[in-house]
Design a protein that fits this description.
By secondary structure, this protein is an alpha+beta fold. About 15% of the residues lie in helices and about 55% in strands. It has one helix and eight strands. It starts with a helix and ends with a strand.
């Protein structure tokens, strides 16, 4: 009986260590009339994965620019001309992550138009 208790205790300790040392993923998503976007933060390597996808009906995208902003997240960029389907994917590094409930704002400009998207967890 004593041996079984030791095994159970060891098993619980190993599981707790595994849980505490595992990496966490945090994900935000948002969508507007013309764009969908997601942002994923991986705590283990402090990596941010950004994605912006055009979901509208236009054939060409010109003068496209974007700005992500949040408490600890900031990213921006632009592209001159693209045809659809069109998506932007990029990776960044962040020293911190947004806290649960924090929102990330994305402003997208293209073809003389602008939309603001709120990304939520």
């Amino acid at each position: 009986m004593m041996r079984k208790n030791k095994f159970t205790s060891m098993f619980i300790i190993i599981i707790c260590l595994f849980i505490l040392s595992g990496c966490s993923h945090y994900k935000w998503k948002g969508q507007s009339s013309h764009w969908s976007s997601s942002l994923t933060y991986t705590s283990e390597n402090k990596q941010m994965n950004f994605r912006i996808k055009y979901i509208g009906n236009e054939k060409n995208i010109s003068k496209f620019s974007y700005v992500f902003s949040g408490n600890k997240i900031s990213a921006s960029g632009s592209v001159d001309k693209q045809t659809t389907p069109f998506a932007v994917n990029f990776i960044g590094i962040s020293e911190g992550y947004e806290h649960e409930g924090d929102k990330v704002k994305l402003i997208v400009k293209w073809n003389g138009m602008e939309e603001e998207i709120e990304l939520n967890r």
